[in-house]
């Protein structure tokens, strides 16, 4: 019998399974798909950054990036994140910058002239820029494969094509069922991303996490050389970055309803480009590659921050990252192991991200959601 059942073989579940197995626990990982990283992990834009406003988000990402730096399979590339700050958000971004510096993470305040050395843009309405030199991108598939390999090496069992159909708590154990069998363990960890609300209902637990579609558009190879950091116009939420000879770009649609809507939203391309061209006129020189564009899901909570830790007896959740799961997974895996072994996480205080915050109305005011 397993001591911990982990549900979900994305990067968060894989990292958690690895750290739980490393701690000497017998781990069973169940994944509904035929292989790993088929949900939000595999469709991520792959960015990692420390530029958040809330200390816990800063530290979750910082410690995760430090770990990715040590894992060759993670393919970490410090291309940087460049935030273009409008006048209206200048004071809030200055406060976030002070928080980041107080925590000892590397973030720089740039003049607009300095920022334009990294990517050309129109300065109208902007106050300054911030740049994170340790921010960048990783290979989510490579990192997830590494964690699963290490988990198996340490004795974890990984079962694919086994969706969790239901379960209940009986006699101090979680007893769950898949199409292929029944399993039981004292602890059950849901790292099921956008599907967490649905999976929770199968266990009789209400978890406020919903899927919201997000789209990444890709250009054809550009007619000019470029090596742009992941650049975000905070005024509109439009972002872009170089990926080889292409550019990737996107912008979250605030009107996108929750749900498992499938396919690239081509109707949102126009509003996205309108915002992008207003700041980055050079985009008019590029053509779109529809076949290289893709879509995936954000796993969204009421305050767009994750739910971490115990939500019921023996039941833990690590989900709801609203696009930040890849960048925080490494540290979250360590913290979930501490939750199980020690009764609560010790390396970082994750109580601000507990489920009970929604019951108390104490939502997390993270301003760095893109």
Automatic annotation (TrEMBL):
- Cell cycle as a keyword of this entry, yes or no, is no
SUPFAM superfamilies reported in the protein's UniProt record: FAD/NAD(P)-binding domain
- Pfam families, sorted: DAO
InterPro entries found in the cross-reference section: FAD-dep_OxRdtase, FAD/NAD-bd_sf
Q: Residue ranges of the FAD dependent oxidoreductase domain?
A: 4-338
Name the keywords, alphabetized.
Oxidoreductase
Q: What is this protein called?
A: FAD dependent oxidoreductase
Q: What is the lineage of its organism?
A: Bacteria, Thermotogati, Deinococcota, Deinococci, Thermales
């Amino acid at each position: 019998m397993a001591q911990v059942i982990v549900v979900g073989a994305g990067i968060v579940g894989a990292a958690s399974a690895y750290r739980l197995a490393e701690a000497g626990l017998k781990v069973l990982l169940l994944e509904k798909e035929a292989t790993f990283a088929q949900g939000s992990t595999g469709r991520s834009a792959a960015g990692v950054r420390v530029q958040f406003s809330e200390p816990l988000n800063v530290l979750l990402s910082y410690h995760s990036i430090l770990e990715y730096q040590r894992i060759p399979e993670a393919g970490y590339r410090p291309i940087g994140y460049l935030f273009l700050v409008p006048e209206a958000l200048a004071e809030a971004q200055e406060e976030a910058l002070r928080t980041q510096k107080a925590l000892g993470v590397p973030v720089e305040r740039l003049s607009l002239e300095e920022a334009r050395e990294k990517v050309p843009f129109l300065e109208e309405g902007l106050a300054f820029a911030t740049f994170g030199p340790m921010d960048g991108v990783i290979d989510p598939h490579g990192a997830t494969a590494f964690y699963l390999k290490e988990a198996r090496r340490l004795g974890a069992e990984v079962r694919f094509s086994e969706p969790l159909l239901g379960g209940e708590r009986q006699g101090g154990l979680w007893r769950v069922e898949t199409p292929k069998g029944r399993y039981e363990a004292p602890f059950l960890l849901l790292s099921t991303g956008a599907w967490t609300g649905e999976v929770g209902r199968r266990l009789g637990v209400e978890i406020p996490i919903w899927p919201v579609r997000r789209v990444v558009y890709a250009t054809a190879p550009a007619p000019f050389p470029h090596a742009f950091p992941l650049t975000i116009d905070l005024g509109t939420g439009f972002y872009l970055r170089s990926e080889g000879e292409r550019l990737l770009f996107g912008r979250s649609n605030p009107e996108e309803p929750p749900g498992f809507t499938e396919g690239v939203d081509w109707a949102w391309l126009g509003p996205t480009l309108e915002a992008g061209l207003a700041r980055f006129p050079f985009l008019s020189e590029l053509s779109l590659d529809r076949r290289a564009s893709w879509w995936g899901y954000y796993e969204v909570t009421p305050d767009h921050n994750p739910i971490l830790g115990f939500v019921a007896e023996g039941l833990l959740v690590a989900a709801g990252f609203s696009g930040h799961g890849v960048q925080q997974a490494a540290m979250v895996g360590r913290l979930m192991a501490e939750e199980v072994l020690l009764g609560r996480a010790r390396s970082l205080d994750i109580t601000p991200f507990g489920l009970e915050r929604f019951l108390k109305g104490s939502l997390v005011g993270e301003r760095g959601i893109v």
